[in-house]
Amino acid sequence: MGRKKKKASKPWCWYCNREFDDEKILVQHQKAKHFKCHICHKKLYTGPGLSIHCMQVHKETVDKVPNSLPNRSNIEIEIFGMDGIPAEDVREHERQKNGGKSDSDDDEPAAKKKVEIPLSAPPPMMMPPNMMPPMMGQFAPMGMMTNMPPMAPMPPFLGPGGIPMMPPHMLPPRPLFPAMATTSAAAVNPAIVPQKPTFPAYSNATISAPPTTNNPSATGNSAPPEGSKLPPSVPTGNATGITSKIMHPPEDLSLEELRARKPKYQQKLTSSNNHQQRISTSGSMMQNHNAAVSSSSSMTIPTSSSTSSAAAAAQAAAFSKAQEVSAYHRYRNHSQYNY
Amino acid sequence: MFGQQALGGTTAAPSTNRMNDFEVTMPPDDSVSALEFSPSTISQNFLIAGSWDSSVRCWEVEQTGKTVPKSMKTMGGPVLDVCWSDDGTKVYMASCDKQVKMWDLASDQVVQVAAHDAPVKTCHWIKGSNYSCLMTGSWDKTLKFWDTRTPNPLMAITLPERCYCADVDYPMAVVGTANRGLIVYSLENTPTEFKRQDSPLKYQHRTISIFRDKKKAPTGYALGSIEGRVAIQYVNPVNPKDNFTFKCHRTTGTAGYQDIYAVNDIAFHPVHGTLVTVGSDGTFSFWDKDARTKLKSSETMDQSITKCAFNSTGQIFAYAVGYDWSKGHEYFNPGKKPQIFLRSCYDELKPRIA
């Protein structure tokens, strides 16, 4: 239980008390979670920025910073990363980090604690009972999360910084990580998937890894069933329940293959091909070819002489073949490429 | 039904140049299927476009944004891919006619250099440390390597399925196939299969592009599928969480119905390492894969964006607007002409520093 941070210098988000390894990630987090316009999903840079954007662009008032703790929802305060955090809050955070108080305690000044606890009470329902209150700060926002943005929440969010926040019995996956790093993404899946039910699907906490990394790995894992339903499945429902339509023919053929079948292109093929083959039998093309052979072989001699490997030998063999110009012409004119 | 546009049939159509970019003069007559800028070995910028009209066109792009048509070649069928040789003197053109031809720009001559048993979907020039060759991928389920002077391939590799997309950045090559196949090759010494990977995506692979690490060595790839999704994959991920997928090219249609469009092309910025995706929905988006953020998304074009490319210095972003067949031939409107646009993009693709 007694998770003690060795150093208190990790950047943290004033709005939700989350810690990050890197201030850059913190800024990304704030833009994505707290400064994103709920109407057009534009990411602003600060709370006031968001407020002004919504006012000017959408004529809407935003009075609270989205996904923030109840006592940290002030949209007037200009906070960017770690800049602009009220000094007292910094001190308070520092104090907690240093384990001045029992770890089961507040992220907030005592006076505000009362407000916070009832409000963040609902999330703990899905948390294991031995969850530590400091996690609330993390979990509080996730209920607010609606659709996934086009770019899903990013793994950096869930870096090591997030892992220690897991209750002890969730820790087992951790030792797996070094091992997984060497294996393919698919290997992660079994480890992560079983945990998933414990958490809401798109939580932004530690486990929000699945939405991003799962996509690739899930595909890999369930490839056979997926593959079988592949061809005809044009309309699909996706995770968010929105019906969607893939604007692509249902056949498992590329657009180019379908297009190339069209008489328009087939005709071109047959007619012009015969034509060209004929032309190419006549002298001009042969001469060109000869010219090309001589010029290009002289051009590449340096390359082959500079090499000593098998490739050089192969090239040498290829050269000798290239001398058989007449053979080539027979090939070109009589090979299977008749239409 | 009663939109002003529908009624005003005689008024000039609204500009299809939604982003106010430079339009390339004399574009192909049919959709652009391949788009490539000349390599850094030549000082000027040349743009090559292959098209479903079987043509391959070459323009010189001037600093002013002006494009000067230089030359054009015709293949025996729709062109599916083009690539440059490393020295910028030649262009290789892969076609539905099952051939690949080499276009020597200096002499303006064309010779066949490769052949498959089915249309050739991809071609890439490999500039190795001890060899150079052309890699071609075809719907005949083979990947072949050509010396370009001999009728027989130096090497042929059987693929599990038809080749749909490929990319090469020596010493790495990746191939995406039908049925969601994904293979990484090592090109060192001789091309060898490095690793077959389970697809990170659930739908048909459509485009793939290799990206580099900070030291400019190829380290992973972005794979786009028809289901508006891109997977960023590292060949040897330090942490499995390095790999991720993101959604793109989707629009919310009526009544909460979401329209999901194919990712038609992906390109990485040669300097910043950020990327662009273009989609069937007619938009392009700039992304920073490291910050995992979208940098910019474009207005919606009149038609799909079929291909895109950066020039070697990363100053110019070219994208081709045209029909990509995603709604079948019924929706092919010959009245809508394909277009290619050039955009000054260097600053827009800079990663944002927080």
User: Would you report the number of β strands of chain A?
Assistant: 2
Please give the CATH class of chain B. Mainly Beta
- Count of helical segments of chain B? 1
Question: How are strands sequenced across the largest beta sheet of chain A?
Answer: 1-2
Strand order of the largest sheet of chain B: 1-30-29-28
Distance between the termini of chain A: 77 Å
Evaluate the radius of gyration of chain A: 32 Å
Global shape of chain A: elongated
Strand proportion of chain A: under 5%
Number of strands of chain B: 30
Amino- and carboxy-terminal Cα gap of chain B: 46 Å
Order of helices and strands of chain A: HHHHHHHHHEEHHHHH
* Biggest chain-to-chain interface with counts: A-B, 88 and 91 residues
> Largest sheet of chain A at a glance?
2 strands, antiparallel
Q: Mean pLDDT of chain B, nearest integer?
A: 93
Question: In words, what does this structure look like?
Answer:
The complex is a heterodimer of chains A (339) and B (354). In chain A, strands 1-2 form a two-stranded antiparallel ribbon. In chain A, 30% of the residues are buried. Chain A is mostly helical. Chain A has helices at residues 23-34, 47-58, 87-97, 110-120, 136-139, 173-182, 188-192, 209-221, 223-229, 255-261, 263-281, 283-305, 310-323, 325-334, and strands at 235-237, 243-246. Chain A folds into 2 domains: 23-217, no CATH class; 256-334, no CATH class. With 354 residues, chain B is mainly beta. Chain B has a single domain (19-327, 338-344), classed as YVTN repeat-like/Quinoprotein amine dehydrogenase (Methylamine Dehydrogenase, Chain H, 7 Propeller). Helix content of chain B is 1%, strand content 49%. Chain B is built from 1 helix and 30 strands. Chain B has a 4-stranded antiparallel β-sheet, with no helix packed on it. In chain B, a hairpin with a 5-residue loop joins strand 22 and strand 23. Chain B is globular. Residues 1-11 of chain B have low confidence and may be disordered. Chains A and B meet through helix 1, helix 8, helix 9, strand 2 and helix 10 of A and strand 8, strand 9, strand 21 and strand 23 of B.
